[in-house]
Amino acid sequence: MFLESIALTKTLPCLAEPGRIIVIGTPDRALNDVLPYLATLPGIIAWNPDALTLTFRRPHGFMTLYNDKVYITQVVDGPEGLELLDSLVQAINAVWAKRAELIAVTARKHAPRHLDIWELLPRTNCGRCDESTCLAFAVAVVQQKRPLTDCQPLQSDSSFADRKATLEAML
User: pLDDT by residue (tens digit) across 79-119?
Assistant: First the structure.
């Protein structure tokens, strides 16, 4: 076992989602040894091995792990925050137990930015996705409020096939 617990140390209002909170936890042990193995998991959107920060996408919000703390955004309340921290301890321990089968990630990984996505969209500003512009759509995709499939020109026009494939790989 790598980790016994992550203590809930603080909650803050979540500015990205009013009515929800940010949960901050402190692990009982530094996470630096396990972070490169956690970076092998799906759902990683950013990994900085120099700063030892790892960010996962959650169904609602994000979870960022530092060497000595954990931030989880868009949490409903304290009890859900405690459940998430307990689940994270279990996940960390499971990854640590399998570390011999994994290859630690040493290269930096970053999440696509809205402008990275916008550059590959058709940029027709057609509004068929219910957003006013393709840039607004790109922001919604980054925030996981819109799936890429909502862009009808990207889905239906074969001249955008390369762009579509690149976007799917990025996301």
Answer: 999 999 999 999 999 999 999 999 999 998 877 788 889 98
For residue 55, count other CB atoms closer than 10 A to its CB.
19
Local structure of residue 147 (DSSP, 8 states): -
Tokens encoding 57: 């996408």
The model carries a pTM of 0.70
Same domain, 35 and 118: no
Q: Residue 109 domain-assigned? A: no
Tell how many helices (H) and how many strands (E) occur in the chain. Answer: 6, 6
CA atoms within 13 A on the CB side of 96: 15
From the list 159, 134, 158, 137, the residue with the least C-alpha distance to 146 is 137
HSE, CB side, 13 Å, CA atoms: give it for residue 162. Answer: 2
Q: Are residues 66 and 150 in the same domain?
A: no
